[in-house]
Design a protein that fits this description.
Elements: E1 8-11, H1 20-34, H2 41-60, H3 66-80, H4 87-101, H5 111-119, E2 123-128, H6 132-141, E3 148-153, H7 154-157, H8 164-173, E4 181-185, H9 188-196, E5 201-205, E6 218-219, H10 225-228
Parallel strand pairs: 1-2, 1-4, 2-3, 4-5, 5-6
């Protein structure tokens, strides 16, 4: 069922359009090889991925800073697989990770098709909690930056999703209003509840098929956006 009266569509970037897990995995393979770190990459990632998500939650809640996130997620992952890595090496790996992350720019299935479809019908925008110096590279190097009228980053605003300030800021920069806008993202807390809290409509990109009792619009493939928009 089509949603009426929408003029502006806001997307999250990581885990919604840009395939973070795939690109991150390839980056780790590259930097471990460069730094001669011998680990079982599958085992490492099985610990790193949930640890990373938890660190990002702490970061969203302003409980840790960027440096603590970058170091802590790697340090904890190595500890989890009983791999002893010196602090100086972890710092270097964390820097190398950011440097090389945008070497890989895999997008989710149907991303380009959907952006082509939506861009002739709506104004498209990004709202992201990712690091400012990395997010613009992801957009440009994956060749999707030209689809978006505005990009709102948490570092430029000073707060992170789900804080209402970042959503209101994005709405203002886009020169639109809440009732004509919709938010699409994979993080239920940051994207969906955050947008709902300012009265914004949402579509949950539930690619992991998390059970959710809330009666919200959701998809598990981006092509399904054509059902709603």
């Amino acid at each position: 069922m089509k949603i009426e009266n929408i003029t502006d569509v806001f997307f999250d970037l990581d885990h919604t359009l840009w395939d973070f897990d795939k690109n991150s995995s390839l980056t780790f393979q590259k930097i471990f090889q460069l730094n001669q770190i011998e680990v079982n990459i599958s085992e490492f990632l099985s610990f790193y991925e949930p640890i990373n998500l938890n660190y990002w939650k702490l970061y969203r809640e302003e409980k840790i800073d960027k440096a603590s996130l970058r170091f802590g997620r790697l340090n904890d992952a190595f500890l989890s697989i009983n791999k002893v890595i010196k602090k100086e090496k972890i710092v270097k790996l964390s820097e190398d990770y950011i440097t090389h992350l945008t070497s890989f720019n895999h997008l989710f299935e149907n991303t380009i098709d959907v952006l082509e479809y939506l861009s002739v019908r709506y104004n498209l925008h990004i709202i992201t909690n990712g690091f400012e110096e990395v997010q613009q590279k992801k957009l440009s190097q994956s060749n999707i930056d030209h689809y978006f009228k505005t990009v709102t980053n948490s570092e430029q605003v000073g707060v992170k999703k789900p804080n209402p300030i970042i959503f209101n800021y994005a709405i203002e920069v886009a020169k639109t209003n809440v009732k004509q806008s919709i938010m699409i993202g994979d993080n239920y807390e940051a994207d969906i509840l955050g947008a709902h809290n300012i009265g914004m409509d949402t579509i949950f990109f539930n690619i992991s098929n998390h059970s959710n009792e809330q009666k919200i619009k959701q998809i598990n493939n981006l092509i399904q956006l054509k059902t709603f928009l």
